[in-house]
Write a structure and sequence with these properties.
The structure is a homodimer. Helices cover 34% and strands 39% of the residues of chain A. Chain A is of the alpha+beta class. Chain A is elongated. Chain A binds chain B through residues 1, 7-9, 19, 22, 25-26, 29, 31, 33-50, 58, 62, 65-67, and chain B through 1, 7-9, 19, 22, 25-26, 29, 31, 33-50, 58, 62, 65-67.
């Protein structure tokens, strides 16, 4: 079995209101050294079978088609084989 | 400057409706080898100054107090120093 971890983040230049709010909250709590906050999604998939190459292709397709909005978001992922 | 990446996930045993819906969507699209989907948050913080130990403490406190709900969520993070 393999576990794929997909990280979906807003592209640079896309407004991130949630991140801005967290940034403001941190400032009011005295964390003055935090200059920027960005919020994204983190998705874990448990996958069975397939070769590493096929898994990579599959997770890439799933991330692109279902887990992210390619217009405003980008994604990265890594796949870990588990016993 | 340092970049902290915080991963917030639901604790085991906590119902994840969003993950279940994605799992069902994947099944209807023919991805039968995906057995489990969990959705979490991914937060990136840009931090200035401080020693690595202080940064670690600070990010741990921020993650615990502000970025996660410790009752139902757990978090991990890693900090990368940048030039």
């Amino acid at each position: 079995m393999a576990v794929a971890k997909v990280y979906v983040t807003l592209k640079d230049g896309i407004l991130d209101p949630q991140g801005q709010i967290i940034g403001k909250a941190l400032k009011t709590q005295g964390y003055d050294n935090v200059s920027r906050v960005r919020v994204g999604k983190f998705i874990e998939l448990d996958l069975a079978g397939e070769t590493p190459e096929k898994l990579k292709k599959q997770v890439d397709k799933i991330s692109h088609d279902l887990l992210s909005n390619p217009v405003i978001e980008s994604y990265t992922f890594d796949i870990q084989e588990e016993a």
